[in-house]
């Protein structure tokens, strides 16, 4: 049936008109992929780039099993292991909480300990969780070309109850601090993206430049509501993030406080040539931190420029201090809880750009400018104490940072004001922690545990079966300067085949997790509804719309510790073989000797020999010596029979020796 | 009879060999002692060339990156430091501030470490353990404090589990050009390492304020690094030190930069430490000279690999002349030259017989090797660290001191920059090599003696001499005891021929327990030895004591207490007359056994001490023979023996040994009576086990030998 052209158009328009509301209501039912990139200049002349890719699959019940965008591997993984939530991170380098921030959502969610960290919540009965976890580790290790399967052993993972995440349930947590992270882990991660690294923002991921950075953390976060126990059926959400801290411009400039100017092409070596066509939205954000913004405002005021805050944020992209090379498409202000002023997000839409007109955002600093980043309420460090191979202790110190205390719910001036700190620490079994030796010092004064510990969960390690686990909820006075925790341990012995390769390096104690539940990291975008369509920003805002858990607490990881244990000399088996062989030889030799010996016969032969011998002085001495050795009185030879055999023998020996020496001498010449 | 005797005499061969050796103990001990001394003299010949055992180190595999940019920056830094050091007021604090500022500008985390100087206190009850930190805190003197400046570079892609430490000591109260240039070398390395991307371990630069000696600041920093105090630090400071609080405030004022703090900055487990020192010897040489110092407390040595890489890089990459300490006075020794010539001759003969036998070394090399070996052995035996690196060894960190002396003058700018470049490149290459290391140092030797920077004697070889020395001791003890028993029983047999009613019954028990009396007297002497070891602690508390007077007091107290103990416990002189005639032999046998046990125990703690101690004790113990018997005998042999005994006893008396040794090394004119006391004081101040050895093994053995000599048989 052929309809006239106009009719078709009219019908199309009509249907469009008709279906638009329906389409909007069905937006949740579609597979979605979004890509976003957040760039943020850091106070110590580095640049943070945070890639955020989100794929969303609608619930299986309504959508079915077949997907166009959502990676099949992940879908299978979720269904096979009944995963409710999972996070896998590969990290290289350390997040510098002092200089790069410890209070913002990115540092809480994306600053991870070095190596691999994996945690997962399963939607299965309690007795099956361990089996599911083991299978999951094997699958992930195949999927990401990493030795995640080492987390299978029950000595490497633990089941934290409340110290790691407020979400209780069948949670398992494990980490491998020594896992090296490389491109072979990145490639399978990129394969999960619909455009891989061929188009869109992920095309920026030039390997040499992103692995050259000071921090590199590649994460995969899964949330699914596929199973019965979930109340809201929102399908599976796969968030892939890559957080990189890069140093623009390697050459040191003379001025220490002069921020380096950079552009996307200078830090990544590439430009953005359009979006991934499969992505629903593709945008780049540039964040100026709140402290920097307030600093800017102050400087403007000093310079006599009176500006309203609204106007300022609009014009801020080109000011006396810095300048953006491209005008932002949109400027958002986000207020956070920990400062009066708000940070600014410049948004750039990537769909405008193409291969012919590529996107290369640049930031040029015009004058020296210093600011600081928002820091966590307490700065945590962990270190080992003591020396030697027998015992030692682990100490965690917490130190106040210059934090604005107003953001806390309680009033700080009150005496009763308490700051809650949760500590989660997992220790391998060969480091035998004595939990009764836990000491807490607040402001250099020892405290009774009852006064400071609100809640405590300890599961001691069991040799070769399970690691030790300590979850502590501390209530510290708000006005503290410093606090310290020490706990003693003794070092265990491993069986020779339990030593890992390079055992002499020492053994790692994975990072402890310090969280501050009374502080929430979130940014708030006032009267800005469009944020909910941008997964990155809405994640920063941490609304319940995206994340299953409620607002995430401020979280920081401590250092990985290296404990030197006693290591055997691994060449020992060789020595053992040698000594065993010697013992065997001695035993069998003497046994055979005893068995085949005939005493009477020997006596007779000896006597005969003695009878035949000529009695010269040497032979008398020798026979005396042997007699002594045998412990018998020496008997002089009975009949001195003169024979020339002995001097003859001596002569022969001398002649042979002379010939040998002569031969040696002449052959060497 | 003939049928029974072989059956009776048939013993196990090993037992028969034992009996044979014991019955010929005299020959065996003479052979063993001569062989031991020969083995000691042959050690330089047996030394092997060093080799880098750990493959991961890969020294010199990368080109050094230190460029003239960093070096000229370091030169500028040195100029600033020199300018500050000329100022008289508060130069120490100002220099620390300047160093911190320079460190912070490089992007490092910087902190000040304030430490109080404390006298090394002898604490007899805490000899091997670390004294209670709280008690130590209370003993600090407030006015004497120093400020170390510590900078930490975090490895950009590392996990921060391990760290490499660079130490540059400088005297904040009076700095010279050499110290400034050691800071300069430190700075040039630090500025390079803050930019490189290959770091896997963190770098800690400790600019140690060495106004109280080079060891104290490093030890204080290490103590705070490993065993910090969490409680009461501020309180003690406030209680004890009112004056120093102002300085603390000054410290606070110093913290203007956000990267500089007063809070102790830490990094991971230390992998290795290098102490960089520059000395200006003002001697014109064609090359810069590098001296390596490695001995830590109680003869502990760093892993040989660390010395190897430094030596390799210094010789083959930077063209420095590398030295280790040696006794220069031994170089002219005629005896050594003679031995060297013999060795050379033997080597030549052997080589002419078989060109593959290459054990001969030239005379000069032999003498040099012996001088170095003697110095190495002596330093290990002393048990006192030869530099600040010793503090690291107490925490199981391998560390050495690199003492670089320039060939030219440090005042000439070109020469100075050239020198900084060479020194800096050496340190950079060493750091890079250690940075490559995945595991801690474990591949190579920990027990060795150096005969030159590139030659060493491992424990397997140098313990032969010691084993040969102490081998006769148990043999002689056994032979003496069995001899005494046999003579005794023969005497008794003669006696029992006369009718005697109760003689047979108590004899076996008495006979087997007869060593008890001797053991008691030897035990009493050893008990006295441990008392005497504690005495110097109390003497040192006495006011206005000069070393000489202290020494005299100590010696007189020793004698007095010895006589007192004799009175109380019953003197062997009175007892011996009543007992068996072979009493002295049993006494000697117990003495020899005690010496054997003491030497064996000491060889576990400090091998070098045991080796030198064995050289002194063993001949004395073996030769000891009652003078009375010798004089009764009045034969040539007996007189020789008596003379030998007297000389050995004189030589082995610890003060006499010390004076003889010191005189031999430095000339007898410089020897003072109080020197021995000073020497003892340093030993106990450094917690050297040698002090314990002298007090509890050597001195009692000496007294026991004297006891035997004077025995009224």
Describe this structure in words.
- The complex is a heterodimer of chains A (669) and B (713).
- Chain A is α+β, with helices and mostly antiparallel strands.
- Among the domains of chain A are: 378-519, Sandwich (Immunoglobulin-like), CATH 2.60.40; 571-594 and 642-669.
- The N and C termini of chain A lie far apart (112 Å).
- Chain B has 713 residues and is of the alpha/beta class.
- Chain B has 28 helices and twelve strands.
- Chain B has helices at residues 4-9, 13-23, 25-46, 68-86, 91-105, 133-138, 177-193, 215-226, 233-240, 243-254, 304-317, 334-353, 363-382, 389-393, 413-436, 459-470, 472-497, 507-512, 515-541, 547-569, 572-578, 583-605, 607-623, 627-633, 636-652, 654-666, 675-685, 689-709; strands at 48-49, 109-116, 145-153, 162-170, 202-209, 260-261, 269-278, 289-293, 321-324, 398-405, 448-452, 455-458.
- In chain B, the strands form two sheets. In chain B, strands 6-2-3-5-4-7-10-8-9 form a nine-stranded mixed sheet.
- Classes of the chains: A alpha+beta (669), B alpha/beta (713).
- Chains A and B meet through strand 15, helix 15 and helix 16 of A and helix 1, helix 2 and helix 9 of B.
Can I get a quick summary?
With about 675 residues, chain A is of the alpha+beta class. Chain A is about 25% helix and about 30% strand.
């Amino acid at each position: 049936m052929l309809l006239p052209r106009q009719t078709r158009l009219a019908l199309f328009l009509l249907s469009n008109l008709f279906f638009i509301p329906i389409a909007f209501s069905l937006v949740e039912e579609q597979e979605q992929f979004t890509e976003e990139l957040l760039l943020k200049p850091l106070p110590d002349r580095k640049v943070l780039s945070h890639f955020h890719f989100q794929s969303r699959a609608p619930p299986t019940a309504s959508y079915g099993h077949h997907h166009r965008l959502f990676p099949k591997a992940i879908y299978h993984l979720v269904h096979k292991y009944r995963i409710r939530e999972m996070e896998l991170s590969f990290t290289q380098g350390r997040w510098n909480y002092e200089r790069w921030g410890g209070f913002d959502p990115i540092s809480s969610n994306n600053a991870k300990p070095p190596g691999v960290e994996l945690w997962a919540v399963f939607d299965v009965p309690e007795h099956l969780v361990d089996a599911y976890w083991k299978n999951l580790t094997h699958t992930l290790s195949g999927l990401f070309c990493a030795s995640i399967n080492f987390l299978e052993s029950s000595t490497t993972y633990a089941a934290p109850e409340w110290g790691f995440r407020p979400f209780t349930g069948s949670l398992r947590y494990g980490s491998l601090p020594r896992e090296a992270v490389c491109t072979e882990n990145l490639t399978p991660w990129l394969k999960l993206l619909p455009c891989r690294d061929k188009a869109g923002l992920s095309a920026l991921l030039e390997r040499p430049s992103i692995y050259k950075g000071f921090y590199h953390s590649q994460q995969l976060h899964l949330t699914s509501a596929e199973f019965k126990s979930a109340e809201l059926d929102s399908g599976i959400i796969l968030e892939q993030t890559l957080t990189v801290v890069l140093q623009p411009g390697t050459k040191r400039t003379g001025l220490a406080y002069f921020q380096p100017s950079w552009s996307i092409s200078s830090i990544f070596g590439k430009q953005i040539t359009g979006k991934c066509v499969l992505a629903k939205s593709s945008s780049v954000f540039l964040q100026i931190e709140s402290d920097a913004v307030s600093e800017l405002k102050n400087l403007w005021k000093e310079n006599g420029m009176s500006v309203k805050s609204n106007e300022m944020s609009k014009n801020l992209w080109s000011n006396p201090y810095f300048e953006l090379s491209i005008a932002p498409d949109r400027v958002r202000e986000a207020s956070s809880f920990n400062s009066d002023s708000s940070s600014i997000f410049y948004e750039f839409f990537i769909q405008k750009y193409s291969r012919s007109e590529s996107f290369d955002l640049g930031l040029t600093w015009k004058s020296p400018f210093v600011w600081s980043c928002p820091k966590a309420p307490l700065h945590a460090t962990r270190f080992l104490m003591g020396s030697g191979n027998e015992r030692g202790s682990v100490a965690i110190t917490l130190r106040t940072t210059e934090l604005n205390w107003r953001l806390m719910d309680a009033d700080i001036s009150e005496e009763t004001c308490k700051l809650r700190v949760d500590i989660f620490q997992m220790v391998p079994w060969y480091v035998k922690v004595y939990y009764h030796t836990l000491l807490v010092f607040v402001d250099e004064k020892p405290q009774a545990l009852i006064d400071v510990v609100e809640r405590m969960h300890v599961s001691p390690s069991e040799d070769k079966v399970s690691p030790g686990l300590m979850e502590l909820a501390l209530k510290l006075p708000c006005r503290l300067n410093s606090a310290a925790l020490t706990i003693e341990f003794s070092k265990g012995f491993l069986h020779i085949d339990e030593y890992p390769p390079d055992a002499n390096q020492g053994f790692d104690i994975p990072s402890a997790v310090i969280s501050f539940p009374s502080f929430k990291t979130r940014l708030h975008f006032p009267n800005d509804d469009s944020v909910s369509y941008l997964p990155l920003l809405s994640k920063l805002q941490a609304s319940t719309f995206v994340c299953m858990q409620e607002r995430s607490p401020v979280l920081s990881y401590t250092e990985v510790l290296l404990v030197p244990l006693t290591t055997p000399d691994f060449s020992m088996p060789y020595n053992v073989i040698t000594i065993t062989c010697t013992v065997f030889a001695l035993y069998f030799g003497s046994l055979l000797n005893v068995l085949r010996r005939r005493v009477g016969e020997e006596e007779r032969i000896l006597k005969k020999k003695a009878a035949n011998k000529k009695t010269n002085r040497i032979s008398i001495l020798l026979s005396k010596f042997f007699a002594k050795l045998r412990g018998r009185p020496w008997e002089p030879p009975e009949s001195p029979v003169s024979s020339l055999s002995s001097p003859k023998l001596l002569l022969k020996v001398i002649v042979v020796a002379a010939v040998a020496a002569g031969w040696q001498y002449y052959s060497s010449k | 009879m003939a049928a029974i005797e072989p059956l009776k005499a048939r013993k196990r061969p090993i037992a028969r060999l034992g009996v044979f050796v014991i019955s010929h103990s005299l020959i065996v001990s003479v052979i063993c002692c001569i062989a031991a001394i020969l083995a000691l003299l042959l050690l330089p010949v047996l030394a092997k060339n060093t080799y880098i055992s750990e493959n991961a180190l890969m020294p010199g595999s990368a080109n050094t990156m230190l460029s003239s940019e960093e070096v000229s920056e370091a030169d500028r830094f040195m100029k600033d430091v020199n300018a500050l050091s000329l100022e008289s007021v508060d130069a120490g604090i100002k220099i620390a501030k300047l160093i911190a500022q320079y460190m912070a500008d490089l992007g490092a985390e910087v902190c000040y470490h304030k430490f109080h100087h404390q006298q090394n206190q002898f604490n007899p009850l805490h000899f091997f353990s670390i004294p209670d930190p709280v008690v130590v805190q209370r003993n600090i003197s407030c006015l004497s404090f120093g400020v170390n400046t510590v900078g930490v570079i975090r490895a950009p892609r590392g996990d921060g589990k391990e760290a490499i430490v660079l130490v540059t000591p400088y005297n904040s109260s009076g700095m010279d050009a050499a110290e400034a240039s050691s800071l300069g070398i430190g700075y040039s390395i630090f500025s390079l390492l803050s930019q490189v991307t290959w770091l896997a371990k963190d770098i800690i630069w400790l600019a140690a304020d060495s106004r109280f000696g080079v060891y104290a600041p490093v030890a204080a920093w290490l103590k705070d690094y490993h065993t910090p105090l969490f409680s009461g630090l501020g309180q003690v400071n406030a209680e004890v030190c009112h004056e120093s609080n102002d300085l603390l405030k000054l410290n606070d004022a110093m913290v203007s930069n956000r990267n500089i703090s007063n809070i102790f900055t830490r990094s991971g487990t230390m992998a290795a430490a290098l102490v960089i020192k520059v000395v200006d010897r003002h001697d014109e040489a064609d090359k810069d000279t590098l001296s390596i110092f490695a001995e830590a407390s109680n003869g502990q040595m760093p892993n040989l690999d660390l010395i190897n890489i430094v030596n390799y890089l210094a010789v083959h990459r930077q063209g420095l002349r590398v030295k280790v300490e040696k006794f220069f006075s031994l170089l002219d020794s005629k005896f050594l030259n003679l031995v060297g010539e013999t060795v050379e001759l033997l080597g030549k003969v052997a080589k002419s017989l078989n060109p593959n036998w290459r054990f001969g070394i030239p005379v000069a090399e032999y003498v040099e090797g012996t001088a170095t070996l003697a110095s190495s052995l002596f330093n290990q035996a002393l048990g006192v660290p030869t530099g600040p690196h010793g503090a690291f060894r107490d925490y199981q960190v391998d560390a050495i001191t690199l003492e670089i002396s320039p060939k030219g003058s440090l005042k000439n700018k070109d020469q100075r920059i050239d020198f900084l470049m060479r020194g800096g490149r050496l340190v950079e290459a060493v750091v890079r090599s250690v940075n490559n290391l995945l595991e801690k140092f474990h591949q190579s030797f920990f027990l060795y003696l150096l005969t030159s920077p590139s030659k060493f004697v491992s424990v397997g070889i140098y313990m032969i001499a010691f084993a040969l020395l102490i081998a006769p001791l148990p043999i002689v003890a056994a032979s003496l005891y069995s001899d005494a028993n046999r003579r005794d029983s023969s005497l008794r047999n003669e006696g029992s021929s006369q009718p005697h009613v109760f003689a047979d019954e108590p004899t076996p028990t008495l006979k087997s327990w007869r060593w008890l009396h001797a053991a008691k007297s030897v035990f009493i002497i050893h008990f006295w030895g441990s008392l005497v070891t504690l005495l110097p602690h109390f003497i040192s508390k006495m006011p206005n004591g000069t070393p000489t007077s202290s020494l005299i007091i100590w010696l007189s107290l020793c004698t007095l207490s010895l006589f007192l103990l004799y009175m109380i416990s019953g003197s062997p002189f009175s007892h011996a007359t009543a007992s068996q005639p072979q009493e002295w032999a049993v006494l000697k046998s117990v003495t020899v056994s005690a010496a054997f046990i003491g030497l064996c125990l000491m060889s576990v703690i400090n091998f070098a001490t045991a080796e030198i101690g064995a050289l002194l004790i063993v001949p004395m113990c073996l030769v000891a023979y009652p003078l009375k018997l010798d004089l009764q005998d009045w034969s040539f042999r007996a007189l020789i023996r008596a003379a030998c005994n007297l000389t050995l006893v004189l030589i082995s008396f610890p003060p006499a040994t010390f004076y003889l040794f010191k005189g031999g090394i430095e000339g007898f004119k410089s020897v003072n009576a109080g020197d021995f006391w000073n020497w003892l004081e340093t030993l106990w101040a450094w917690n050297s086990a040698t002090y314990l050895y002298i007090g509890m093994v050597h001195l009692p053995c000496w007294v026991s030998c004297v006891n035997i000599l004077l025995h009224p048989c």
